[in-house]
Every structure is written in C-alpha cells, then in structure tokens.
Write the structure tokens for this entry.
Amino acid sequence: MRNFQKITSIRLYCTKPQRPVAKSIYFSKCTDIFTNLALEDWLYKNRDFTNHHLLMLWRNQPCVVVGRHQNPWLECNFASLPTMGVELARRNSGGGTVYHDIDNLNLTFFTGRSEYSRRRNLQLISSALKHSFDISSEINKREDLCINDHKISGTASKLGRLTAYHHCTLLVNSNKDNLSLALKNTLGNVKTNATVSVKSKIMNLSEIKLGMSVDEVMEAIVEEYGQNVQVIESIDEANYPGVTEIRNTFKSNQWKYEKTPKFTIYRDLFDIVEAFLVIEQGKIVNGGIETKDLSLNMESNNLRDLSGLFNEMMGKNFTKEVLDEFEMVVCELRHNEICKNIIVNR
Amino acid sequence: MAVVPRVLCRRFLQNFSSPRFIHTSLKVYAERLFTEKHEWVKLDGKIGTIGISDYAQEALGDVVYAQLPDVNTEIKQKEECGALESVKAASEIYSPVSGKVIEKNEAVEETPSLINTSCYDKGWLFKLELANESELKELMTETKYTEFLKTQESH
C-alpha cells in the first residue's frame, strides 16, 4: 500500500517526457484589457496546442483583473477606480486579483493539457532574468515568482479538456502607489465563498536594476524561449472570427459583476445585533437585522419591524450608491431607541 | 425530487424491455462509469449522477470553489459546464453524458472540499436526465478505468 501511494504521487506530479513541439511567440500591440482577454480566450477555444506551444506577450492600460470566482467589490477599491482611470475586468482563470499597467508585462503560456506546467514556465522567466540581467529569483510554494520573498509575478491558470494556459504578470516598473490604492478593500466585513486573494509583498524589477523597461524584459524572455516574435497588429474579426463577441462578454456588467458568488455584508449595530445585506448575482436579495444571541426574541423586541428599513434596497443592483444607502440605515439604527433597549433589557 | 428518478426508472424499463437490454443494464448500470478525462456517472434509471474520480481530485489539490451548472441547463457530452478552482487554476468540468440538469449539489457549492474528502459520495457534482443513453457505451467500467489508469502510468 505504501509503495502504491508513492508511485501514485510520482505519477501525478511529474511532467511527461519532452517531445519535439513547434513553438511561437505572439506580441499583442493592443493595450485594452478586454480585447487582450478576448484574444487569449479566442486562442484557447480555437487553436490546438498539442503539437504547437504558444507564448503570448501582452500589456494593458491601468486595470484591476479579478479571478474567475472572485468578488470585485471585495477585491478592489471599486468606487475609486473610475476616478483613477482604472478599468475593472474579470478573467477566465482561477486565482487572485492583480493590477496591470503599461509597465507590467503579461505572459500567457498555451500548451496541450498534458504538457501544462506552471513551474516550467516560471523557470523560463527566472532563467531569462538570470541570463540577461543576473537577477536571481525563486519560485515559491504558491508558484509565484519572488525575489527575497517579494512577489514580482502573480500566476493563474485555466485547464480545459485538451488545452491549458498559464498566465502571469511580471512587475517591471508598475506604479506601486496606484496598485495599492486600486487593490484596497473598502467593503468591510463580508462573508463569502468566493476565492479570496492572498495579500503579498510585491516589488518591481526596476528596484533591482534601475531604469529597467518592459521592452528589455521582453527581449530577454524572447531569447530564452528561442523563437521569433510575431506582432499582432490588430485583433479583428477578419483574423479572429468571433473575437468581438468574446470581448463584449468580458466588458459586460453581467460577466464583471453578476458572476460574483453570493455574499453577505455585515455591520455591527450593538454587541449582539447586526445588520446584513445579501447580494446574489449582483443584486440585493435580502437584508435586515439579526442577533448573534439566538435566545433573543426578534418579535418581542420589535426587531422584525426595523428590518423593513431595508425593503427599499431589494432587487436593486449592488452599487456604491446602494452601499451608501445601507450604511445610512445602519447609522440610523445605531441611534434607534428599540435597538438601544435590547441592550438594557438583556 | 426523490420521486422523479423512480418514475423515470419505471418508464425507462418499459421502453426498453427486451431481455438483452435488461440483462446488460442490470450488470452495467449498477456501478459507476468513467471517462478518460476522469469524470464518472452513476445511473438510477434515466437519471445520472456526475462526479470526478479519486485520481482527478488528487491531481487537482484542494478545491476551493465549485461552479456547478444550474438546474434546467441542457448539457452536451464533452462540453464545458462548470469549473472547479484549486491552487489558482480553474479546471473546466465536462459532462460524460448529455442531458438536462435536474439537481446540483449545493453542499459542494457551500463546502467544495467535499470533492476531495468524498469524491464518490458526498462530493458528487450534479444530476441530469440523460438525453442519449447510447453515449454510455463509450464509457469505461470501474475495472476498465483502473486498467486505463495503469496504462497512463506507464507512459
């Protein structure tokens, strides 16, 4: 039995022996997050990578990209993004939230499902940094690329039946202040099943080598990958039929917001009483007051009546305005006599 | 919900009452059938319960989120119909058979780790009403699937 387990684990985690495959590199000239995500998804859906691996290099104007099963309201400073000029997008792969800007390089490694190996791809980046700039980096347990425990790259992937891709960011000279501000959580106490990002210390490659540019890093990676770069001038229907529809989906509120797993916001009113708001598919579906003390009778304390204050919000799309409305009701309740009496009567 | 399978089961047997069919159905349908992509289906009349194999759950690692198909969704065999997230990877779920979803496992949505701890029992993913029983012929019995895993290992 012991032996069998050992064999199983080796089988699961070793990659297949290398066989000769063709390789290509694409560089997308486009810097619109939705178009680039659409190209990535189009390639995943329409190309066969079993005998031909592809590395796609791309970058974007400032944006926050949440994982497929994440909550954008929880993961970023959603109310401030428009004033900061930062787009919000949801990608198709798992994992946590990242910030992109033009001084961050994104890499997508497309392979057949059985050749998928995040570690091998990260090793390639690490080798490129070593060979071209003498920068030492290591791959940590969560398969992120780090320098002295500071992340320089965040990883995520999507695995299909025959095709898989692994994509990652590479912080070259990103605006760290904007990154921190854009990823700040302003939603407060929330209960959810959604994937929650793991906060990490980050750094730019330019902190190691002053003045480092994305172009230089790209050159190093291209050299390591060993192929010529094909520049994608425009991502249009003529070359990628159906790509517009994919882009429209990525850009839609339905994909960005309504795909968010159900969540509940809590606000303490008094020590045992709290207000809550339930959001499902981006809409308010429930709200009210509950107590953490089950022996407390909601009816006799007229708590049930107060829950009526939330009726106005039901069915509305969850937005900054609705959140403000909720906070105002919470504020009102904190000064409410019925609520105060509960404490006295206990 | 529990009534549905029994009713359908009776109708199913009436429709295909040739002795040969019953013989095979009793023999084959009593156990799980597997795909080469490590999904399983277990039949109760015309209702199939779908899940992933022990091999698949071990390869995935800790599942942290399960996105399952909604009730009434029409699913085609080998088409994407949901996703399981583990260690920053979203792995697409494919159905071994076509049909209409009649139930999804809400316990798994609530506690995705059930897929790791009980992939053949509490960690089932969804149930569907089969649209085309002939698709079952492509699937492997548990014995054949075990053999298949061994051939994968030697590659």
Remarks:
- The interface with chain A takes residues 37, 55, 58-59, 64-65, 67, 78, 80, 83, 85-92, 94, 109-110, 112, 152-153, 155 of chain B (CB under 8 Å).
